[in-house]
Amino acid sequence: MAMDSFIRFLAVADEKSISRAAARLHVSQPALSRTISLLEDRFGTDLFKRTAAGVELTSAGTILYEYANRAARAISNAENAIQHAEERGKLILTIAAGDGWAYGILPDVIRSFSQAHPSVAVRLETMDLESRTQGLRNGNFDLTFGVLSPEYIATGTVEFLPLLEAPYDVYCHVDHPLARLSPEREPSPEELLAYPWINHKFEYDYDTSLSLRTARNHAVRTNTMLSAIEIIQGSPFLISTAKWFRHFFERNNMHRLCEDDESPVFCSGAVFQRSDALRPIDKLFLDAVIERCRGMEGSIDLGLKTNFAR
Q: N or C: which terminal CB in the chain sees fewer CB atoms within 10 Å?
């Protein structure tokens, strides 16, 4: 059966409506319904069930969705890679990362790596844990970087290479009253609680219940670190985030107050599907990341497991 049939199936699943999917695909509703019927005949089961709002996937449809989505993404990536290779003669390295990695660690690595390997085009996307993991499973990314919750490690479907382990730090704007404290004195818990906080989306990716257990007044919630930094400029807000943001924050008029006593010790690193399936270029980039992490606060001693390219 042509891939186009599965593309139509994915559209219906995403839109939860045959009419909306038909409009999105610019096909007639009868033609789209016929495609779904042919797929259900092929697999011998219903793929959708009708609801008051439209349609939703059955258990069999959910299974097909995972594999069809992975195949569609793989074909799309292949098309992009072929086009890119033909136009520029370059390999493509696609990476997804949490914001701490995307802003605090990977820019230096990508800058140096791109200069050393001009035939490789690096693509970096910043996203949350769930999106990174799902994208890796679907074959959208070659490597991902960030925290990985224990339940994902337990599945055995991905490999996790721990590189950094440290609690968060508390920051404010350089004009904040707490920034004027003596360098020898850190703010007390009571002083920290006296000010409003910004909760950026990635802060509690690892354990969302943390945001419910704190006494802090999270007056603002953002889904990107850049918007959080813009909001905090000249304001009374405080923010808690990964240590590897330090240089990035300092460049944006942020002041480190103290280590966050409420923060767990987060273990963060590289995540990939299987080390034996990594391409040579993936391994070279991973080695560059490992080298960048050496000497950083919270870096993990990897012992002999430090060179993937060999």
A: C
